[in-house]
Amino acid sequence: MAERLEDVKPTRMELLRIRKRKILAENGHDLLSEKKDALINEFFKIVDQRKEIRNELETVLQESFEKLTEAQMIVGSNELESLADGAVSMDELDIGSDNIMGVKVPEVESKILEDKFYGYADTSVKVDEAVEKFREALKLSLRAAEIEGKLTKLAEEIEKAKRRVNALEYIYIPKLEATIKYIERQLEEREREDFFRRKKIKSMMEERD
Known about the structure:
CATH class: Mainly Alpha
Strand order of the largest sheet: 1-2
Helix content: over 70%
Number of helices: 3
Radius of gyration: 35 Å
Distance between the termini: 55 Å
Number of strands: 2
Order of helices and strands: HHEEH
CATH architecture: Orthogonal Bundle
Shape: rod-shaped
Number of domains: 1
Strand content: 5-15%
């Protein structure tokens, strides 16, 4: 951070050094602002995706329960429970990561079996249709969870970028500017003192002559 004024050496070399630091800080501020804006744009793009996936998931879930009701009417609740007890466990879920503007976000890869979840060969078509609909709902749910994870990570990074931009804009750069002005005033004061000193010396020498 910028030095306290009382700790600053009011020299031309120090003035050049602080000016360079100010230029670097301003460049960093601009880059961080651009990154923040880009992250915000990506964030709202994914928000739109979330809205779409939620609407789709709501529709598919409604259709899934309708299919399940139809299957229950045909094969009965006991048969559905037996099929559920014999369902194949789906534990093949990989959580990887993707990169958005330098931010690591979660990426869900599901290896959902494409054959039946249950172990019975002779089942009603309605049961198969219900299973397919719930399989589709599961895939959409995983996609929705992935999107929520991305939004969480992006929101955290946007907040960090905002804090850094604000710190540069309202604290660090103003301190550097204040330091520059302080050194400039000190140098100007010294120049005035030197001028009057030289003038006085010249006057004294002329009096002697």
